[in-house]
Amino acid sequence: MGGGNLTNQEINEERMASSLTLFEKCQAVAHNLWWSWHPDVIAMFRDLNPQHWRELGHNPIALLREFNEESFMKRVDEMVLGSRINYAFRRMNQYMEARTEWSSKNVGVLGSKPVAYFSLEFGIHESVPIYSGGLGILAGDHVKSASGLGVPLVAVGLFYDQGYFKQYLDASGWQQEEYNRTNIEDLPLEPVMDKDGKRLIVRIDLENGAIFARAWHLQVGRVNMYLLDCDLPENAPDDRTLTSRLYGGDSRTRIRQEMVVGIGGVRVLRALGIHPGVFHLNEGHCAFATLEVVRCRMEDDGISFDEAVRQVAQQTCFTTHTPVPAGHDRFSPSLIGEHLSPLQRQLGIDFHQLMAMGRERVNDDQEYFCMTVLGLKLSRHANAVSCLHGIISRRMWSSLWPSRSETEVPIGHITNGVHVPSWLAWQMQTLFDRYFAPNWIDEHWNSEVWQDVYKIDPGELWETHVSLKTLMMDFIRRRVERQAARRNEQETVSLNPAALTIGFARRFATYKRATLLMRDIDKLAALCDDPKRPVQFVFAGKAHPADEPGKRFIQQINNLRKDPRFKDRFIFVEDYDICVARHLVQGVDVWLNNPRRPLEASGTSGQKALLNGVLNCSILDGWWAEAYNGSNGFGIGLGTAHANTEIGDDRDAKSLMNVLENEVIPLYYNRDIDGLPHLWIRRMMNSLATMAWRFSAQRMVSDYVHYSYLPAAGGVTCDMNFRQ
Ligand SMILES: *Cc1c(COP(=O)(O)O)cnc(C)c1O
To answer: Quick check: pTM over 0.90?
Structure first.
């Protein structure tokens, strides 16, 4: 950099920065998860020790702990890493200082009063295991995109020292769960201190006793994230492990976790002097936050309970994520009494009034307290996560608005999206860089950017895809060998790089019907076994530890490999996580999704796949119901859902087989003299051009700002319900 062009501020920064050693700069970069969506920075860490990088689960802090200043410098010299480290450090600091043009134009009143985003899980990177699946990944992508756009937002969640379980299958194909303790020293967590420099601890009173929680700070780009945990000597022994596991324990564990994230979370923000203008509840889990904010308002402003509720609801945004009834937390009246009575008394209301806030039928003393109902009642800005899910949610919760017709129920929708820099393979990004406008990535949620897809040379697009497919197959081979070694088997897999490869990876909840394909097993065998046009499948996904039917699905899929007709045609990759997801969505040819409509609220893995030129083949549910246009992928089950699930499943299975046999396979194997599947490549381009911008989390967060946050902050009023 020529010094003559630097501003004073830059010169100062440079001076400060140069007082740090390269080792310290590298540490600093490792402590801001900004690195996790920058491929060149990831490559920089990897080059320090590629084998350990992989073995340590892509954790830069753990990797750097293997070095001292001297051994580090030796490696840096060997690999000529010095200027890459300087460059990464510099770019990170510039990013942290910069105010985006988008935010200067769009965030308005949020500038002085940030959004507080509450979620029980956050999926940011595989090395920070505080997520289980789609909900968490969405929260992570939301935070990263808020950082990218420059939306003032703080995130609040829990720190689980054992996270969600690691999955492996035993010799019979049955899922086993293993919990490992994460070493806090290996994570970019900083203890949060109070004004006096002591560890910040918040106390939550129960009817008998109290729970104490401390907070950790995590830097995710420009977003400050605060994670609470309960591993404190002040707590009763049982409560010390309260936050050990995500979705572990019973409903008593769950209500306590939800009090810690909601009530404890609000208290941490207050103790830090953060005064949010908007509260965003990602799913009902965090809805107790609203009650604590109401309590604070009454205390601070001397206003009545009713007035405080009115004000807080005006400032609260609520996102509901599932039409599956079991997906909504419900707590018994006695559990609520045991836990919330102190808060109820402070709110100056009686127990019946408290219960009414979580009840659909306020006078039904038997009804449990539902967190989604609380979220809906205490927020003026509620949304579902896709257009179809909006319709279903308005129907599902219409009893809460008895005087309104179903279409007037105030639940809008903002369709989910994914964080493009996190999910787009760098090889694809490099290809797009050559054909798209400069800096296209900074405006990737603008539809016009993607029209340039049609300029890409079809052969190059295909070659890039094939190279990603090869990398995925290497990854799968390594994984499967490791899995087999663990079972004392010597299994090898030889996937065929020329075969049509279909991926299916998600939670093994039964409504997602992972085994739908297997309803006509002979037909499936015939498709897989066709020597001229072979098909192979890659599966991954965890079942909830208590979900026996889900585990049976995994077993059925996994055991297909023992049937000679499916040898090397059905692969189950264990321990689905962000790392496995990234490899699969970047490397398969087709991404399959066949949920029971309309139970998939949105789904996001297909959005990750499409960014990488993978074609979706899906039931018209969730996001796909609004994305599919006939030429940008494949649609299954074009009819509506059937009330009888058996009949519906049968019909969808037939439709799926038809689409595979008559559309997907012929299109894939229709090659020109150069061996290119021209019509397929055309469809990849259509898919990118029509959807990559729409299903970006940057578009999603920008919609939240306009349709939810700004109205909640009392800025412009724009009613999301007009978006139906
Ligand atoms: C994206 C993702 C999910 C969610 O996928 P769906 O299609 O919404 O089911 C779950 N788990 C992981 C690890 C993911 O990356």
So the answer is: yes
